[in-house]
Amino acid sequence: DAGITQSPRHKVTETGTPVTLRCHQTENHRYMYWYRQDPGHGLRLIHYSYGVKDTDKGEVSDGYSVSRSKTEDFLLTLESATSSQTSVYFCAISESGKGALNTEAFFGQGTRLTVV
Amino acid sequence: GNSVTQMEGPVTLSEEAFLTINCTYTATGYPSLFWYVQYPGEGLQLLLKATKADDKGSNKGFEATYRKETTSFHLEKGSVQVSDSAVYFCALRTGANNLFFGTGTRLTVIP
After folding, report:
1. N or C: which end of chain A has fewer CB within 10 A?
2. Dihedral of CA B40/B41/B42/B44: which sign?
3. DSSP states of A72-94
């Protein structure tokens, strides 16, 4: 299994509070991603990173921010959690370079976040 | 734009039945295509992939052929087992910055 650890695995938080989810990898892959999984939507990209301090938005980035200060860590922050952000969040990693198009992404176990 | 359309689920089959899960895509350029599987309580795992037209990906008895003319990548297995019960996702990749996923198809195999 690819070395990806998400923490926490489960969290319940109140509306309006900040929340940070952490993704840690031991594979030294350049690309890291945060997805959310919701019924009827599959997985949707929130943000991704293509290197230390290099990040970009995905299709559902509103209300989320990310940071990557080290190759191995990618943090997802909900500045002020809302009930619509109740979801399962997955981190993924991928290699880069000429083979990037063909390479798979490896996924973490997921974080189930409930905003009440 | 890029998108993936998967057959609606859930799908319920008896053990040893034939499985097909349809997947069609829209993409700019020449994507790579993937099937991922998600077992209960776990993250997604790559099941198989195909990187160019007419390629066939296969793994664990599952297979899918990259059909450029019909923009499809249907997943098939000749004889399903109870252990195949999971959610299956079709996905495409056009670059390093994203994988585009379908909505997932839940498969339940009953003994």
Report:
1. N
2. positive
3. TEEEEEESS--GGG-EEEEEEEE
Question: With 90 as the cut, is the pLDDT of residue A72 above it?
Answer: yes
Distance CA(A63)–CA(A50), nearest Å, equals 21
Q: How confident is the model over A97-107, as pLDDT tens digits?
A: 555 566 788 99
CB contact under 8 A, B102 and A44: no
Look up residue B3 and give its two tokens.
């998108």
- Closest-CA residue of B relative to A1 is B45
Taking only the tens of pLDDT, chain B with its 111 residues reads 889 999 888 999 999 999 999 999 999 888 999 999 999 888 899 999 999 999 999 999 999 999 999 999 999 999 999 999 999 999 998 877 778 899 999 999 999
- Amino acid B93 reads R
Instruction: Inspect the interface and report whether the beta carbons of B43 and A31 lie closer than 8 Å.
Output: no
d(CA A63, CA A51): 22
Report which of A80, A83, A66, A70 is spatially closest to residue A21, judged by C-alpha positions: A66
Q: Which residue of A has its CA nearest to B32?
A: A102
Q: How close A16 comes to chain B (CA, Å)?
A: 28
